[in-house]
Amino acid sequence: TIKKELGEYDDAEELTETYQEQLKDKSIPTKIKQKIRKELKRLGQMSPNNPESGYIRAWLETIFDLPWGDRDEQKIDLIKAEKILNSNHYGLSDVKDRILEYIAVLQLKKAKEKRKKKKKKKLTNSTNQESPTILCFVGPPGVGKTSIGRAIAKSLGRKFTKISLGGIRDEAQIRGHRRTYVGAMPGRIIKGIKQAESLNPVFILDEIDKVGKDFRGDPSAALLEVLDPEQNKNFEDHYLDFPFDLSEVIFITTANTLDTIPPALRDRLEIIRYPGYTFDEKFNIAKKHLMKKVLHSNGLDSSQINITDGALKKIIQRYTKEAGVRELERQLNKTCRKVAKKIVAHQTKQKTKTKAKQKKISVKKNLLKKYLGPEKYDLTLAEEEDQIGVATGLAWTRTGGDILFIEVGLTPGKGKIRLTGKLGEVMKESAQTALTFVKANAKKLKIDEDRFDKTDVHIHVPEGAVPKDGPSAGITMATAIASAFTNKSVKRELAMTGEITLRGRVLRIGGLKEKVIAAHLAGIKQIIIPEKNKRDLSEISADIKKQINFKPVNSALEVLGLTLNKRS
Asked: What whole-number distance in Å separates Cα of residue 363 and Cα of residue 361?
């Protein structure tokens, strides 16, 4: 009573007893329990006016909120997992196969553990001995990287949690702050585990390629401990100040590009690439998945609106240009909002809300201008006619593939080369290599060698505001230069990709799948690829192979033989 009157009594004893009871109930490892008991003893001996007592309480609350001993019982069923993946995502067959392989391995591991238990052998934490794979989904925005992570969690019967790493620059965001600081808190990894309420959730680390670094440390270096199967058994958050076992967590990372991920971190990841969607895949995704989502989000149902197949195809072709389906979803939402407005206006006029008098609105392709405005993109992006000094190349970008036009103009001068279009150093060097190759083969191409000394060459790559780099436009530049000097036009339905050497060899390039998809959407009928890229054609879908003729080449002279028409 005297302590209470003096303001020294703050239910400290009762609080300590409550914590002691919680400690008994939780299945916390013995070493950590000893540490907690020491802190409880300190809290009991401390004056309630001591500011450190608040820090200890906050620390204890965080520890008792962690899911000690709480695990989701894995119900691994490969057939069920396959059904879930197919029902949630259309296409992505390579990605799904790899995930099903991953699930099959987990199923075999579980069966092995059960057999060991039946034989009554001592187990030494098999999950800690194994080295689980850390998957990294790499692909353009809007292709379903994060949503397939949810499908994996559902198919495994595990909880799902996600954190976004985009823009993180402080290492403490991963490992937490030391609890001596005012306002200290645990890092995002421990917060994610707390939120999941399970020790073995499926944990998505989104946008791992957008982690930054500054004077506060390098968060990507802190992620090494989280994602390394050899280290994450003893992950130490600065706030908790003791090792926490993350070995049972299934970590999945997502990225748009691998360029910005440090090599040490990339080495710990198994890369699964997501290509962009083809026209047919986008159509099926819209019909089977997006329409249900869009109708629900706009308060409509199938009895009120019908978007015809023709309209859907026109939206994909004329109103979107992307590797994923986000813009397509936005355009469908826009259409549905216009229809919703029309329905509500009709109801207001009729002064009734009954569906009986409501007419089903059909959105046909000839009405799309009314709903979405004029078309944003042309049906085919390829040139309308064969032109001299213009060649079509293929480019890889972070958002998928794209087609690239190389223009060459010749003017009287002193043999100088001028490059425009915001080109990177590698691309500039590639242009100079292409020009040297054409000069070296002037006789074979029937070009007067004296013309090179009297002519300035201007190479321009349109969309000048967009930065471009890389060596894969080498043969395209050589074709455009040869076309300009020989006065022969380039076949418009033909696109090409490949690096060129001074001797005219065509070297292997990357991102072929994304480039081919872009060419297919642009209406290209033939693609010239390096001979060494022939093996990558197995990744291209059968539908595209039927519509596009691939021509593998070894030398740039072969390219010129295929691309240039007879003299105009």
From this structure: 6
Instruction: Say whether pLDDT at 458 is over 90.
Output: yes
At 395, phi and psi to the nearest 5? Answer: -125, 155
Q: Which of 97, 135, 92 shows the shortest CA–CA distance to 278?
A: 92
Segment 235-247 shows an average pLDDT of: 89
Map tokens 């353009």 to a residue.
140
Please give the angle made by the CA atoms of 14, 16 and 17, to the nearest 5 degrees.
Answer: 65
Count Cβ atoms below 10 Å from residue 348 Cβ, excluding itself: 10
3-class secondary structure, 160: strand
CA distance 555 to 553: 6
- What does pTM read for this prediction? 0.77
CB burial string 535-560: b at 16+ within 10 A, e below: ebeeebbeebeeebebebbebbbbbb
CA-wise closest residue to 421 among 399, 434, 405:
405
Grouping H, G, I as helix, E, B as strand and the rest as coil, residue 268 is coil
Residues labelled as active-site residues: 472, 515
30: exposed, middle or buried (C-beta count within 10 Å: 0-12, 13-18, 19+)? exposed
Per-residue model confidence (pLDDT) at position 52: 81
pLDDT for 440 beyond 90: yes
Residue in 471, 452, 473 with CA at minimum distance from that of residue 461: 473
